[in-house]
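Anyone? Bumping this.
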Amino acid sequence: MVQSERNFLTRGDWLEAAKRILLTEGIEQVKVQRLAARLKVTRGSFYWHFKSRQELLDALLAAWRRSNTEALVAAITQPGQDLEERILALFRLWLDEDVFDHRLDTALRDWGRKKPAVRQAVDEADRRRIAAIEQGFLEAGFEPLEGRTRAEVLYFTQVGYYTHEIRIGRAERIRRWPLFYRIFTGRTMSKARVAGLEG
Amino acid sequence: MVQSERNFLTRGDWLEAAKRILLTEGIEQVKVQRLAARLKVTRGSFYWHFKSRQELLDALLAAWRRSNTEALVAAITQPGQDLEERILALFRLWLDEDVFDHRLDTALRDWGRKKPAVRQAVDEADRRRIAAIEQGFLEAGFEPLEGRTRAEVLYFTQVGYYTHEIRIGRAERIRRWPLFYRIFTGRTMSKARVAGLEG
DNA sequence: GAGTCTCCATACAGTCCTGTATGGTATGGC
DNA sequence: GCCATACCATACAGGACTGTATGGAGACTC
């Protein structure tokens, strides 16, 4: 076994490190020098994998574009879902940070406030998500304006909870689901479904 | 009239310039060099008025602390207000950017995501505002958990609207007030009040 | 085993930033 | 008219950052 297992970095390694900094400290702190220090190499490596810092940032944005809205839309556009099922699917999606990374969303929103190109990507994601939620309300019989408004209230409330980083325990959140459902829809969750929660 | 009207800068001038940059480009861009360039003086002036860049940032935070939550709490804690009046007062407060500067709020939230001391100030403001709203629900007869949750939904929805910078016309927003009221409270706004809107 | 390719290190140029030390200049007190 | 004071300019030291040019070591080719 040779000792010189030359373990070269990949472009993906740089992207992953960049994403970590983006999550915790914002896009301004995603700097070539700091990434190199963290990865224990010199910046020479970086400029072999990337043309410039800007190319790294572009790649970060592209990766988020591909990954982050699909899960949400997919969860609530299953055929045969009624409104209860759609909204519960959203609650479940937002419950666990593994499936839907709030911090990445927040970081992109911060970033978008300063860079118009990023802003466009974030806006598009919001539009797609809200439209998907809205569709559920419309199919459940709500009037167009009310359906759209209820979708916005639902989405913004959720964004608000993790923007404010209010930490509520998992069990407590599940306990509130019927209440949220009643606020968001004006209707009462069916008893069968309430009994089936917490499962 | 002497030509040498030496118009010296005040500490307030620096703070105002800093606030402008904070609003548009975030706290990282609040740099002594840029402020000096914008104010057409050298950094020598800054370091006479302030001990360091940090002292400027501290002063910015302190100013926000003093100013930004009072108006909201005052608007909804007038004696004799019922729930309708309180919520309408909030809607009106948020309608015009002059009285409640959303951008400054957003900028502080961004800043707080990176600096724990700022984070504490923002959290405290959120708690005070939500508690004030919650009080209105409780006095209107809602159960504790529901009152608190409805207050959060109301507040987060509003934060969401300007976090996402959704631009809705003034008239359109006013038109939606009865609908928002119904979603947030589960009750219908009195006809007398609806007729009195748009005034 | 000479040549080529991949991946990274090293060295240099240049920008932008903070903070400090010190000098200069108009202004008011006396 | 002298001096202190308020306010700002100038100059220097030093750090963090980007980007480029070039060298060098291991692996792979044929």
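Late reply, but here is one note on the structure posted above: Residues 6, 8-9, 41-46, 48-49 of chain A lie near DNA strand C (CB under 10 Å from a C1').
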